[in-house]
TrEMBL record:
It comes from Promicromonospora soli. InterPro entries: MFS (IPR011701), MFS_dom (IPR020846), MFS_Efflux_Transporters (IPR050189), MFS_trans_sf (IPR036259). The chain crosses the membrane at residues 21-44, 56-76, 88-107, 113-134, 146-166, 178-196, 217-236, 242-272, 284-302, 308-330, 342-363, 369-389. This is MFS transporter. SUPFAM superfamilies: MFS general substrate transporter (SSF103473). It holds the Pfam family MFS_1. The keyword Membrane applies. The keyword Transmembrane applies. GO terms for molecular function: transmembrane transporter activity. It is a multi-pass membrane protein.
Amino acid sequence: MPTSSPRPPTWHPGDVRGAAGGLFALALATFVAITTELVPVGLLPLISDDLEVSESLAGLLVTAYAFMVAALALPLTSATRRLPRKAVLLGALAVYTASNLIVVLAPTFEVVAVARALGGAAHAVFFSVCIGYVSRLVRPHLAGRALALVTLGASVGFVLGVPLTTSLGTAVGWRTSFLVLAGACALAGVLTAVLLPSVPGGGTPPNDAARGARRTALATVTTANALVYLGHYTVYTYISVLLLAAGLAMAAVGPALLFVGALGLIGAAYAAARLDVRPRQTTVVTLVVVAGGILALGLTFPSTVGTLAAAAVWSIGFGAVAAVFQTAAIRTRGASPDVVGALVNATANIGIGGGAALGALVLDGAGAAAIPYTGAALVVTALVVVVVARRAFPSTQV
């Protein structure tokens, strides 16, 4: 009698402890993804010198990457919706690996830009699927904590990924940083294949009278998300330029980014502890700290101590940002989890790419001292949106 091949066991959402293996795998994959996106930030002076382009043009390596994400997040998420979610994540990690290897071998700035665009395409689908994946690993009321734990991978990307690649690039060459990162991406792919359980895709919000209100709430959350990332990356893309102008030696930029980035873990831990209890309060506090830190950076620049202290405050707040907006967007139920993930991913990267481009314009025009004020104004605008939009950012879970 013929027998059919056994189906893989169905995953049943449970608590955070039961999903620990999968959450760790996604956090690790998020770490290498964020590091891949941001690795040029600390290496801008080295890349611009070696490839004989200006620092503002080198900064557009972040812009091109981010705009690929913004343009492709929804189309690629839609095109891959019938594929197994885990296979899509593994494919994205493989493309990250290839993108970093091409950068290592690239003879010109133009080839580096093409390789970065390839990485951006992987990023477009990776984070869109990852956000929805996390929401399926645990029960709905635990989504905030689960997303905060996975975004710790992003925080560690700031804490270790960018500073270590900066220090490595300074010591032995910027291409070596991309080579090591390619190996880390490949390792993350292997561990994700082993540790991450398969979950079903799909899932649509209920089609009821509140559908329009949920979609409006989702649009509000993603708009505020774009504004925060726009403000942050207007400044952060050029943080190495600001630190050098504040008196740090190039060799000290990596350690400085390590110190500042490590403080972002405080914000991530705060989000993990509070998002499932006081989501609105957590969001407001997060944005107040981010805006205050960036504004203080403008007020204290070019003092070395003042610049570092302000960047530390700013980093603490930003450590919570990804979890705050991902959770708020998922809980609007304005679309399926994957589409929500795509919208959060796209708007964040509109902010990242736009911030890099806006920062370049300010740097070439008004100068480095004006960059923090531009970024702070954008984050304050996002804070106003959050304060006004109580339906999109409720005080308790809905």
